[in-house]
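Q: Start with the shorter request: fold the first protein.
A: Done. Sequence, then structure:
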Amino acid sequence: MDLARLFRIAGLAARVRAHTNSPSRPFSVRPVYLLSDESYNRILYDGRTHHSPLRFYDRSFLIYTYGKTLLAPGQRIGYIAMPPSMPERQALRTALFVAQAVTGYAFPNALMQYSVGELEKASIDIAVLARRRDRLVGALQEMGYEAVTPEGTFYVLVRSPLADERAFVERLA
């Protein structure tokens, strides 16, 4: 995969046409921001590496939560980051802080705030997840299902053996 080509986001401007540049999508008037949900960026298998768009596009927001990588989905602690080169960075940081303060519940408790440094060092056992992934995908394929082996995260996509997926789900229920 040619990552330079994949992440040449600035080239999107050259591809804007009349049907994409309209009053409801004024690409040439307002900047386009990219939101990158990187909640699973540490859950990669088979030597894969993650490439964040923040390295390639200065109007990117990185959204991260520790709940996924530490298998603690109820813990609402994470962050939004932006590259130092982002235009109007300070104004956007202030807007994010105000939005967080207004919602009230978006602030982690004091204990969680102090533990972020330690959380950053913690990680789940990727080898264990890889073995579980392989066992699940293998079992599904042995049963005749078409399953995609994930390169990251812990979700397995399985194709329905019936053309009518809803009917298949109802049969399973």
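Q: Next, the second protein, separately.
A: Sequence, then structure:
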Amino acid sequence: KKIYFPREILPLSVVLTNLVNYLLSLFILIPALLIFKVDLTLALIAFPAILIVETLLVASLTFLVAIANVYFRDLEHIMGVLMMAWFFLTPVLYPADLIPQNAKFIFNLNPATPIIEAYRSIFYAGKWPQWDVLGYLTIGLLVLVIISLVVFGRFQKTVAEEI
């Protein structure tokens, strides 16, 4: 007999595990902000909204990469390099203001940039994030979530055969 196992659980468990780790890291961030005398303002109320947007991005990419990794075995090794490049192309270690004006368009295509800027805004500047930018990103990410779930659903039936 075959037992039904929802394959969505596997990539979703990776996302949720990392989400818990991320939330636990806040227990270090908040005291550090207080030690360095960063004012914690009401803008922190925006944190859950930003976290949801980030989780949509991570979940949709995880579902797509999970399927792609089954068919392209070397993708696992390439992903480390791609993630490192993405990290340096996202204004994490540097403010977005340092990006030259003629390159801003390319950097703004990066879906992680507005998320990082929103976190930087609420945690370090004590200001509200740019809701319009996050709104457009959320709409785009909802489309990406639907696409990733459709692709995952389409290919999940053949995954067991490929493995």
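Q: Describe the second briefly.
A: The two ends are 20 Å apart (CA to CA). Residues 41-162 form one domain.
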